[in-house]
UniProtKB/TrEMBL annotation, chain A:
The chain crosses the membrane at residues 23-50, 62-85, 105-122, 128-145, 157-173, 179-197. This is Uncharacterized protein. The lineage of its organism: Bacteria, Pseudomonadati, Bacteroidota, Flavobacteriia, Flavobacteriales. Keywords: Membrane, Transmembrane, Transmembrane helix.
TrEMBL record, chain B:
InterPro entries: WH-like_DNA-bd_sf, WH_DNA-bd_dom, WH_DNA-bd_sf. It holds the Pfam family HTH_34. Residues 15-94 form the Winged helix DNA-binding domain. Coiled coil: none annotated. It comes from the Bacteria. This is Transcriptional regulator.
Length: 202, 99
């Protein structure tokens, strides 16, 4: 065999490893969008729904329910955007979106995320909402790290970053919204932009 | 010298090399998944799997999904180590300037 053949072997190996184990189609743009939605959501929450100094947010107030609805809309919008952009990209690259790799990615992503979600709801029901932002960041970060084994790129660093600021957030009560904004807004935009630039280059 | 020794004859075929590439980065893969990724016929794939199985580079696990038989393949420790050696050898061969 010549050097050419060996090189062909190696590129074939790389290609198969990527195609079989990594969900390559995740689009960087969807990260940017998720970040923008989060910032808009946080801004609405800050201006309209948050208790003024001296007031308290109570669990059965309208404001609290609206806050939860806002949170859900941000999450749903982000997921829908990611789904649409990713299927579009997969189609362009002739990849199948629903295969063993995607399934593994989703399962591994959802295990910590759903655990965290249920935990937060249980805590909210017993009036412990002080750490909600911190818990959301930490469990989301863990979900990203867990899912990163099945994706290409640097999702795990985004995960580490989310866990870190989640922990810092836990240590500094009262600034939940700001950390939430940083983690879900800014970090997503930074990460999405890096991915987007990389996609453009390749 | 030495480098050539590490080039594994068993991996000197596109499909066998492909099977190992997939199995070292996945916990397991079933027959259809391998077939789809490698784009080969059933018989062709089966014979190459047999060769790797006989060398104990991969493990075969048979089970049922509902009523359908399902066969899963897993790379063994030996298989992964041999594969790594092979890749390292390939890399060195490429880096070595032609004499």
């Amino acid at each position: 065999m010549s050097n050419q053949d060996y090189l062909k072997d190696i590129s074939e190996i790389k290609n198969l490893m990527n195609r079989s184990s990594r969900f390559i189609s995740l689009s960087g743009l969807s990260g940017i969008f998720a970040g923008v939605y989060a910032i808009i959501g946080a801004a609405i929450a800050y201006i309209y729904l948050f208790p003024k100094p001296g007031e308290f947010l109570t669990l059965h107030s309208w404001n609290f329910k609206l806050l939860l609805a806002l949170l859900a809309s941000v999450a749903i919008l982000s997921v829908v955007t990611a789904y649409l952009l990713t299927t579009q990209k997969a189609k362009k690259n002739n990849e199948k979106i629903w295969d063993a790799t995607t399934r593994r990615l989703l399962i591994n992503f959802l295990i910590p995320l759903i655990t965290g979600g249920i935990y937060i709801i249980i805590k909210l029901n017993s009036q412990h909402y002080g750490l909600t932002a911190s818990l959301m960041l930490i469990f989301y970060g863990l979900a990203l790290v867990n899912a990163s084994k099945y994706t290409i790129g640097n999702v795990k660093y985004l995960g580490y970053a989310e866990i870190t600021i989640g922990l810092i957030c836990a240590a500094l009560p009262g600034y939940g919204l700001w950390f939430w904004l940083l983690g879900f807004g800014l970090f997503h935009i930074i990460y999405g932009s890096i991915m987007y630039i990389k996609e453009r280059k390749s | 010298m030495g480098i050539i020794d590490n080039i594994n004859k068993l991996f000197d075929h596109r499909i066998r090399l492909g099977i190992m590439s997939i199995l070292v980065v996945n916990e397991d893969a079933d027959f259809n998944r391998l077939k789809e990724l490698l784009d080969v016929t059933d018989g062709n794939l089966a014979s190459h799997i047999k060769a790797l199985e006989q060398a104990e580079y991969i493990l075969v696990e048979k089970s049922f999904v509902g009523r359908k038989p399902n066969t899963n393949y897993i790379a063994t420790k030996l298989g992964k180590a041999e594969f790594k050696k092979h890749i390292d050898a390939l890399e060195k061969l490429i880096q070595k300037p032609k004499t």
